[in-house]
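User: alpha-1,3-mannosyl-glycoprotein 2-beta-N-acetylglucosaminyltransferase. Structure?
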Amino acid sequence: MVGFQIGLHSHTVGNNLELDIGKWHIAVDTAERSEARHNMENRGQQGSGNIAGNNVLPPAVPSAPAGSMRAYLEGGSKLTLIVLACNRPEYLSRTLTSLMKDVRGVRVEDVLVVQDGKHAETQKVIEDFGLNFVQNTGGTNLRRGAVNDGAARIATHYKFAITKGFEHNPASPAVIVLEDDFLFSPDFLEYFENNGPVLEEDPTTFIMSAWNDNGNKIHVNDRNKLLRTDYFPGLGWMMPRKLWSELGASWPNTHWDHWMRDPLRHKGRSCVFPEVPRDYHIGVKGTFMDDFHHKAYFADIGYNKDESFNWRGDEWKGVVKATYDNDLKEGIGGAKELNSLADFENVSGERFVIYINVNPKNPTQPFKQIGQYFSIWHEIQRGGYEGVHGFWWKNENYVYIINEGEQGGFKSGRTGKLWAVGDFQ
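Assistant: Predicted structure:
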């Protein structure tokens, strides 16, 4: 195994589980890395492999003005992609192989790998791909104090990485934030390029993510569908430059993702994400990840693998709040109220609505039994929008779960059963 393992996400999921998977990854990575590098060379996109320390990268062009994302992208310019890494070369190799080989439109010059520390094997992987990279070597070895304070280390590295990402291309109106343990859909970059402008067109939006917390294979169908959630998903997301100017100076010293979910930060703005995820989380071992929770919440994610899929370019208009809320109300209004779990049997193509009343702030997580029944997150906020969860159930019927215990404009239509947590057996 590689010595000290650290993931770059911050899901609170219990104690780490040590797994010896390194040799398998290394064997696969060698072949995949060679093929990806060959593909890059054929496209004339060989990177320089430049290293930078904590010094600011020299700006090549003026910083992007606020509100310029749509014009920037329509002009054919590319967004910067930053890949956060530390000391997991096997995962990083698989991630970079997928990014450079599988994703349409990615150019070497638009990718910046930001490494926490100077782990030699990890640096070698980056150099083999010919990518520009920056090493975060400032302060103590772990950035902020104790060796076991992974949340502090990660939060500090995120601030460093996002800052360097915007400096890498001062014209880019946003950066796409990636971690070292992802696989990607063919249209991963196109998803952001086609739909990113909604973050400037609709002031009620916050960030855009490629991840669906409840995007298991049995829950997704529509590759064009965009959704809104009150809960920051992370895991492959876009940070607009304008938002960074709002948040960067007060970035936290620990648990950055929980900080992003605080109403003081999002101010009621929603996150945009696809029904069908555009990336996949392969990291089984990390600071806040173990085998049990990966199997429960990540292993069955149904991310897009269809190479023939293309975005029309107008899908983002459907997630603008006024349109989205109206469509959601119509969908709920046309759904059948579920009276028995047996109603699911031997039917397809139906829409059902289930009304519950759960306190979302209850630390005992009363939603857990419902989440387990439907194979979605036990934390009721994940994937929810103003008290509503919407998802496909076994790819056959669409289900709305409406929580009357939350604020929102979608709970006034109940005429039948109010479901109790214990009803889901």
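The longest strand covers residues 397-403. Residues 22-297 form a domain with the Spore Coat Polysaccharide Biosynthesis Protein SpsA; Chain A fold (CATH 3.90.550.10).
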